[in-house]
């Protein structure tokens, strides 16, 4: 039973201890578990100074009497085959299928219905085994969600993929499986291009062992993995990498492939940016460094480190909250500075399009403010001098006489927001909430906010349904899914 994965009253955990040495229950058999959600824990695997097991996450441990498990809803896992049949097979007839070494009768196993499946969502269904069978015709499946399950080994995931060989997108979020260098088959799945490993607590070595099975991988999500402090991805074909929510102060031990074009570093603790702390990339065109601890000096370094950038999210950093006096610009002074200070043309800032008039207003405001000493900008040396001199030349001014032009009916940041009304359904009831959200924000960001508002961990399993269509790629924006003020959004918390 040790290291077995369980679901107790709907909460996944791993058994870390079995015995009779718990001081508060002498001679009684107890188990010690590490909860996937550390908020459920009560200790670090110790009782009254006696350390009985170690926790991967601080405070995620608990002890339970073995006898008390009989009073709880305990799930020991099911097979991938059984989970697919239970959720997707129609109730048209009774078939016999082979699960492991046994023949089982299954009600409603309709091959024709399964043949048409392109997406499978088995999130939080207690999947722990594969049990390969030719009775599952899943060759058309391209989206596979196996998040928050009870796998103990990545080898089991590879066995599941044998049944769905053409999967292009897969989520393994919230799992706690081990990855063995030896014993894991050398199976390759060239169709898979997008993989999400959010909150899996994997090490750098384990991540590299996983992605070697997917030679054409272009999108990788490693969010909420505070165990990863370095990784070398130079031998991959990645184009998109998500390292958000990892408590990173710098990336001096990270190495990116030359193919990388999009990088998400939001919700970290980045500061003191230099060419040594952030790996340079001439190919990067999209960067998200929102919700960090960056200052203007760090921003100027980003201009140099990522010279090809055209899309930037940098909101909610200390320097973006500075209090500037009001002006007649079509955008805020902070946005004006960001647009003007960037050494190349930004086409998108914080999820909204930067129009030509906005850029023109921003350049005039910035140059005038620097010349008049209202903005502290190191314009006398290096790349900044070259950039500022070019701005002055392009505007045809040599001193502070120009006045920013103002254009009426100019598209502002306000137009990037939509009023989203979503219905949240949980065991304890249904509620409806209306909230203004940036339409260029991801569905995942909206989901995290909803879960927090309802008192759940951001990593709790839930399903998003937009206009009666289940969302499978949460990294896409609300705008991608056509969300407007009248769109119906359902959040199903499991």
UniProtKB/TrEMBL annotation:
Keywords: Leucine-rich repeat, Repeat. The keyword Iron-sulfur does not apply. SUPFAM superfamilies: Cap-Gly domain, RNI-like. InterPro entries: CAP-Gly_dom_sf (IPR036859), CAP-Gly_domain (IPR000938), Leu-rich_rpt (IPR001611), LRR_dom_sf (IPR032675). Residues 31-65 form the CAP-Gly domain. The keyword Phosphoprotein does not apply. Pfam families: CAP_GLY, LRR_8. SMART domains: CAP_GLY. It comes from the Eukaryota. This is YALI0A17358p. It comes from Yarrowia lipolytica (strain CLIB 122 / E 150) (Yeast). The lineage of its organism: Eukaryota, Fungi, Dikarya, Ascomycota, Saccharomycotina.
């Amino acid at each position: 039973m040790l290291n077995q994965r369980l679901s107790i009253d709907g909460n996944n955990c791993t058994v870390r201890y079995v015995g009779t040495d718990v001081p508060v229950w002498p001679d009684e058999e107890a188990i010690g578990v590490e909860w996937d959600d550390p908020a459920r824990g009560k200790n670090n695997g110790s009782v009254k100074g006696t350390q009985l097991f170690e926790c991967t996450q601080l405070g995620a441990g608990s002890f339970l009497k073995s006898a008390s498990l009989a009073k709880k809803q305990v799930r020991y896992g099911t097979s991938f085959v059984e989970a697919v049949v239970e959720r997707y097979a129609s109730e048209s007839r009774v078939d016999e299928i082979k699960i492991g070494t046994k023949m089982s009768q299954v009600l409603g196993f309709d091959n024709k219905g399964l043949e048409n499946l392109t997406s499978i969502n088995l999130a939080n269904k207690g999947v722990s085994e594969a049990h390969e069978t030719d009775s599952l015709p899943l060759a058309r499946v391209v989206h596979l969600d196996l998040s928050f399950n009870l796998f103990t080994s990545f080898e089991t995931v590879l066995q599941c993929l044998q049944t769905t060989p053409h999967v292009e997108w897969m989520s393994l979020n919230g799992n706690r499986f081990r990855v063995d260098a030896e014993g894991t088959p050398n199976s390759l799945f060239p169709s898979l291009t997008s993989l999400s490993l959010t909150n899996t607590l994997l090490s750098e070595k384990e991540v590299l062992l996983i992605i070697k099975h997917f030679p054409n991988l272009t999108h990788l999500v490693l969010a909420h993995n505070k165990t990863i402090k370095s990784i070398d991805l130079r031998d991959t074909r990645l184009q998109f990498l998500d390292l958000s929510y990892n408590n990173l102060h710098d990336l001096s031990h990270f190495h990116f492939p030359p193919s990388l074009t999009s990088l998400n570093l939001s919700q970290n603790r980045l500061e003191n940016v230099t060419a040594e702390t952030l790996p340079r990339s001439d190919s990067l065109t999209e960067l998200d460094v929102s919700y960090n601890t960056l200052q203007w000096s760090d921003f100027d370094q980003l201009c140099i480190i990522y010279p090809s950038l055209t899309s930037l999210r940098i909101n909610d950093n200390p320097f973006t909250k500075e209090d500037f006096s009001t002006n007649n610009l079509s955008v805020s002074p902070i946005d004006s500075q960001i647009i003007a200070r960037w050494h190349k043309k930004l086409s998108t800032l914080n999820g909204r399009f930067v129009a030509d008039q906005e850029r023109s207003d921003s350049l005039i405001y910035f140059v005038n403010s620097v010349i008049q000493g209202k903005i502290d900008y190191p314009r006398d040396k290096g790349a900044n001098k070259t950039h500022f001199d070019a701005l002055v030349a392009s505007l045809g001014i040599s001193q502070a006489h120009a006045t920013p032009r103002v254009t009426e009916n100019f598209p502002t940041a306000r137009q990037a927001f939509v009023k989203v009304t979503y219905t949240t359904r949980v065991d304890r009831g249904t509620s409806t909430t209306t909230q203004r959200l940036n339409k260029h924000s991801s569905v995942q960001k909206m989901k995290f906010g909803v879960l927090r508002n309802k008192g759940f961990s951001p990593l709790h399993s839930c399903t998003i349904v937009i206009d009666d269509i289940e969302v499978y790629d949460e990294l896409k924006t609300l705008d991608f899914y056509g969300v407007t003020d009248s769109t119906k959004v359902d959040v199903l918390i499991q």
